[in-house]
Amino acid sequence: MAPSANGQTVGRRLPVESAFTRVEDARHRLPRLFGRRDLVVLGLGVMIGSGIFSISGVQAANVAGPAVILSFVIAAIVCLLAAACYAELSSTIPVSGSAYTFSYVTFGEMWAWLVGWALVLELVTAAAIVARVWSAYFLATLDGFGVTLPSGIAQFFGPEAEVNLVAPLLLLILTALIVTGTKLSARVLTIVVIAKVAVILLVVVVGAAHVKMENYQPFVPPARAAPAKADPTVLGWLLDSAFGSFGMMGIFTAASTIVFAYIGFDLIATASEDARSPRKTVPQGMLLGLGAVTILYIAMAVVLVGMRPYAKLGGSAPVSEAMAAVGLGWAAKVVNLGALLALMTVIMVVLIAQSRVLFNMGRDGLLPKSLGRVSRVYSSPARAAAAAGIAALVLTLYPKVLELEELLVIGALFCFAFCAVGVLRLRHTEPNLERGFRVPLVPLIPLLSLAATMWLMLNLKTGTWIKFFVWMGIGIAIYGLYGRWHSRLANEDSWDFDLGDTDPGTGGFQAIRADQDRPTELRAIRTPPEQQPQKPTRGKHMRN
Ligand SMILES: NC(=[NH2+])NCCC[C@H](N)C(=O)O
After folding, report:
1. Which atom of ligand 1 is nearest the CA belonging to 263?
2. Which residues form a coiled coil (predicted)?
């Protein structure tokens, strides 16, 4: 067995204070600019996207009927429970990297790698899917303004096109922006977020007048048997009951997919290193943002299924199609434009977050070190950003990428589960760390979060699980063959690690307000010396 920095390889953990030191060392010249409001904006910027503008309708039409409203409620509850856990962890370990870093400190390197690997899957599929959905709204917008493309060209634009040209092009442009260090300024993001929220409110207010009560009937359409070769959910497979669609189980099946719409609150934690008083602002930003989104989504779902018979909501731009169907052509155009903007910021924030996760993994030696470098030319984590963009671009070429939304969800739920257990474990192992936010009713809430997360995972399709296992298997192989040996924890002295070099900067985000505080608070909360775990023994490494 290979020796390691603090114990066996598998249990090798990143000491808490070393997580903080990395930030302090690397951060000495970086301002902390984000306040609570900026974090809420960031959260809304990444949460409100293709979930509400596309999946809502599709799930109503094919899986849950008008009861998709309940699916939105269930998904919100699961996400709120998970967000509480994320909030505590990010208030305890306020460094970027989100679930990946939390797991590194809490469970050790191998688990952290798996969580990070799942996060990579989640983010790559997110960018690829949202880019495809963007192409649908792009077509719809052109159409709305009377630009009808000749069908020879339009066939390359549709979200389900064999060869889609718009999505990869969009990813290419956005990646180029991020690689060259273009910041997504908080001001731009704020404007876009206001626009998205306004679009949702418009749909809710204007659409409400066109709601017909009969569209809510039957609220839970009778269960329908699955077509013979349909992929069952894991639960259906375990119980040997081919749950098809609709009926009570349809509500849960749809809820699992609809989690997609809420995901993104976890990414607020990736901005911890840019936030002022992150121990307070990051948890607040997460919970406030998710709360706001929950209200908006449920209101929108109620109106959407009320406007049009559910069976007709399965189009690629269901929200604007519904508006047009009730004669609100002008509103449909506004929705299309709003969705275009909305989806673009989602992709941008996702790519930035992805580049940070890769950057962190590179910095820790679990992926090639070069990913953990800041480009001298662009002062951005250029390699990590390029890798993130290219991966998404390749995936979006796959014509059935829209069917991979469950894959994104399973990746996210996997991280949620780790965070739920992580809260319990860290309370036990590091009871004295300062926690800016504490999950109430421990252990009840984390356990509920874990149970709810696992329940939704069981409602995902067997095919999704198989793909997920394959992906994780590849991950384990990479760790065994590469990460384990190159980990920075295992080779600390051999690292030609130049601190000034490795700072991701604000990694693509830019706040508006002027810098006021210095990150002194991190220093103040370091664990007192007597509680610090043993300093890792340096120099005893696997290759001796
Ligand atoms: N962390 C992520 N995977 N974010 C993707 C967010 C997707 C976003 N909720 C949407 O509806 O489009």
Report:
1. 9
2. none
Atom of ligand 1 nearest to the CA of 349: 4
CA–CA gap between residue 356 and residue 506 (Å, rounded): 10
Of the given ranges (123-137, 144-158, 274-288, 320-334), which has the lowest mean pLDDT? 144-158
Contact 86, 269 (CB under 8 A): yes
List of residues 6+ apart from 233 with CB closer than 8 A: 243, 249, 253, 256, 458, 459, 460, 461, 462
Q: Which domains does the chain have, with CATH numbers?
A: 34-489 (1.20.1740.10)
* Nearest atom in ligand 1 to 51's CA: 11
Q: Which pLDDT belongs to residue 11?
A: 66
pTM as predicted: 0.86
- State which amino acid sits at residue 202: L
CB atoms within 10 A of CB 544: 6
Q: Which two tokens stand for residue 246?
A: 């609709």
Structure tokens at 162: 């064999």
**What are the tokens at 313?**
């909501």
pLDDT digits (tens, 9 = 90+) for 113-135: 999 999 999 999 999 999 999 99
Q: How far apart are CA 538 and CA 515, in angstroms?
A: 37
Is pLDDT above 80 for 159?
no
Probe residue for ligand 1, chosen from 44, 47, 197 as the CB with the greatest number of ligand atoms within 8 Å = 47
Of 260, 268, 300, best ligand 1 pocket probe by most atoms within 8 Å of the beta carbon? 260
Phi, psi of 461 (to 5 degrees): -75, 155
Best residue for ligand 1 mutational test, from 54, 263, 270, 404 (most atoms within 8 Å of Cβ)? 263
CB under 8 A, 24+ apart: contacts of 502-505: 502/26, 502/363, 502/372, 502/373, 502/374, 503/26, 503/27, 503/29, 503/30, 503/374, 504/96, 504/355, 504/356, 504/359, 504/374, 504/380, 504/381, 504/384, 505/30, 505/181, 505/374, 505/379, 505/380, 505/381
Contact call for residues 471 and 121 (beta carbons, < 8 A): yes
Q: Enumerate residues lining ligand 1, CB below 6 A.
A: 46-47, 49-51, 122-123, 126, 130, 260-261, 263-264, 267, 346, 350, 408
Which conformational region is residue 486 in: left (phi greater than 0), alpha (psi within -120 to 50 degrees), or beta? alpha
- How close is the Cα of 269 to the center of ligand 1, in Å? 14
Q: What tokens were used for 507?
A: 């990694």
Tell me the CA–centroid distance for residue 519 and ligand 1, in Å. 30
Distance, CA of 121 to CA of 374 (rounded, Å): 23
How many whole angstroms separate alpha carbon 405 and alpha carbon 388?
Answer: 18
For this complex, say whether ipTM is above 0.90: yes
Q: Report the range of poorest mean pLDDT among 196-200, 243-247, 349-353, 529-533.
A: 529-533
